[in-house]
Amino acid sequence: MRKILITSILVFAAAAFAQADPISYLVTVNTASINTQYGYIDFLLNPGGQNTEALTAVITNFTPAAALNPADPNNFVGGNVTGSLPGPLTITNTNADNEYLEGLTFGNTITFDLSLDGPALTSPNGNPTANGTTFAISLYDSTSFNYLLPPTGPAGTLIVDYLGNVETNSAVVGNTPIVTFTPQGPVVTPEPSAFMPLLALSGLAGACASRRKYPRGLAN
After folding, report:
1. Residue 137's beta-bridge partner residues?
2. Which of 66, 173, 207, 217 is buried most, with the most CB atoms less than 10 Å from its CB?
3. How far is CA 169 from the centre of its chain?
4. Which range (24-28, 48-52, 128-132, 183-187) has the least confidence?
């Protein structure tokens, strides 16, 4: 019985501390095949429906920062976007279309840190009509804004569904994924209220442990 109780306490503790807020990725974009070519990188964070809960994406440490061209007249910002590359760049899905596009000269790779936060992750409402939120990375050429790597769509996407699950996808050239999302682990931020029942159960566990010092019937 004591083992069951202590196991339950440990499960409760894990649940209390498992609220990932935010989660983060190191994102790597393989652009070696278009090295030295000028074009555009585009970020979208769009909700799938009116019932989609809020989600915020923050991009930091964009590299190579020197390759960016903030003076390009075709650069575009739309929707709920604040900041600029190399970051912090913050995009929130509260508008139907939220987009940041900037010109740059491609090198062998692009890397940046991506963190995600908001009720869409931490307290999803489970409403299937919301269809989740999609974060998309696209690469365009500089003449006709046609897709690069691959030529028919985003180079990579990250989807948070209506249950708070996260799915990452990458287009592939040959056998090589273009975009790699490497999880950096959740930042654990338990709510203060989570500590109270945890402390109460910890005290109960301590009481159970102290009873083991005495034969049955002799414990105080």
Report:
1. 43, 156
2. 173
3. 13
4. 183-187
Closest to 52 (Cα-Cα) out of 98, 121, 114, 115 = 121
Residue 210, judged by CB atoms within 10 A of its CB (0-12, 13-18, 19+), counts as: exposed
Contact (Cβ atoms closer than 8 angstroms) between residue 24 and residue 61: no
Q: How far is CA 158 from CA 142, 148, 203, in A?
A: 25, 18, 42
Q: Model pTM?
A: 0.75
pLDDT tens string 21-48: 679 999 999 999 999 999 999 999 999 8
Please tell me the distance from the alpha carbon of residue 134 to that of residue 157, in angstroms, as a whole number: 7
Alpha carbon 127 to its chain's center: 20
Contact call for residues 68 and 41 (beta carbons, < 8 A): no
Average pLDDT value over all residues in the chain: 81
Closest CA to 139 of 123, 127, 152: 152
- Name beta bridge partners: 77: 100
- The structural domains of the chain, with segments of one domain joined by +, span 19-193
Rg, Å, the chain Cα set: 23
